[in-house]
Amino acid sequence: MDSFWIAALVLAVVALSYQMGLSRSRQVAMSAGTTAGTRLHSRPQYHGASVALWSVVPLLFVLLLWLLLGNTVSRWFVLPMLPAEIVDQGGTALNTAMQRVRSISSGFGVAGVPADYEIAAAARLGQVEFFLRTGALALGAMFAAAGFYLARNRISPRFHARNEIERVIQLLLVICSLVAILTTLGIVLSLAFETLRFFTFVHPLDFFFGLTWNRRYAVTGDEVTGSYGMLPLLWGTLMVAGIAMFVAIPVGLMTAIYLSQYAPPRVRSFVKPIVEILAGIPTIVYGFFALVTVGPFLSSLASGLGFSINTTSALTAGLVMGIMIIPFISSLSDDIIRQVPRAMREGSLGLGATKSETIRKVVLPAALPGIVGAILLAVSRAIGETMIVLLAAGNSPVLRFDPTEPTSTITVTIVAQMFGDSDFAAPQSLVAFALGLTLFVITLLLNVVALQIVRRYREQYE
Asked: What is the DSSP code (8-state) at residue 79?
């Protein structure tokens, strides 16, 4: 049974148990001689949800155990059928043999002619997996039926089903919050540990303040060759992101002001979807657009004016990236500006202020927290962009202050470091984690600065 049928089974259990719990709660209310639901502590929908919850949770628990332990149990039954020398060798050889057995059992086939023991082990594996799957479904159905019976019998006029459902929802919200927090913590710790390993090869001062990036692969994995100075990459990242924000912030913010304050409804309904289409274009398309169109155009334009601009440069990547992130600022800022109370605008106009003065002195200060959040999102998007810079910036990790010359960024270098056949325990690969941690710290500092700006300049109203 594949995942589709398992999901269909779970949804069927939820729907059936909910409807039966709903009907049962209404019957209980009617048996008390009142209108359906009036004397129940909780509405019938909560009783139905309670029955559905106690029916599906045991089923999901059994299915989860099957998913976690099924492969381990089936492996125990298959190992005795493999040759002793493969089992004793373990490691890669044993994993390869098990993978061939699973491929034969699933019908995908393997390279070469399968051995007799592989065919027999595949047959045993199919039988064991069928038994485990059937047993898990049968046991899950039994537990679901037991939960349904107990939950249905608990329905009574004074049963607090609403409180139970609200506690479950609160628990789910806490779990979701913990998942987000633990995921962030796991990312930070994984980056931190690998970064510390990298600093055993390269001194932190050489990494953070080095002016030369010249990666060279060594013959042995623990040999350090070349230079790993981060400043050329950091400057390239900030230069490209700065050019992008120089384009995106004024254009996006002015677009938001026009759409929210000046544009007629018909124009707004036509222009805003067109602007938001920019956010849906894949970044690889922007990269090809920068490489094929924008770069040659800037180069030919500069040649006509008497100076030179490389086809692949920080300017090319920054301009196209700025076009890409305009919707992040315009759409969010537009929504925030429209949330400013209308009474504030009318009060300002009633005191004699012009429309532009009202926007500058009333609307924008009131919407400043949301606008700063939109700009922060756009900055983070610009710093983390990879494909546009990879295709349009030239991938030249040299410290240059001229935006018309090729450059490279931290994200492009991370991609380059993780490609190839290098050892992941070698400094040539561990440097990618140090660069990733640096990006994380930069983003964190941007958040801190944005919060300080909001607290300093925010206008508060009663």
From this structure: G
Higher pLDDT, 264 or 220: 264
Task: Give the residue carrying structure tokens 């098990």.
Answer: 98
Cα angle 326, 331, 337; round to 5 = 120
- Domain 226-457 is in which class? mainly alpha
- Give, for 226, the enclosing helix (H) or strand (E): strand 226-228
Residue 403 has pLDDT above 70, yes or no: yes
Q: Using CA atoms in the order 437, 439, 445, 450, what is the torsion angle rounded to 10 degrees?
A: -140
Phi, psi dihedrals of residue 83, rounded to the nearest 5°: -60, 145
Q: How far apart are CA 167 and CA 178, in angstroms?
A: 16
3-state secondary structure of 401: coil
Question: Mean of the per-residue pLDDT values for the chain?
Answer: 83
The answer to pTM > 0.85 is: no
Distance separating alpha carbons of residues 378 and 439, to the nearest angstrom: 15
Q: Distance between CA 251 and CA 186 in Å, rounded?
A: 38
Name the DSSP class of 39.
S
pLDDT in tens, 241-278: 999 999 999 999 999 999 888 888 888 888 888 888 88
Neighbours of 299 (CB within 10 A): 18
CA–CA separation, 385 and 414 (whole Å): 12
What are the domain boundaries of the chain?
Answer: 3-155, 226-457
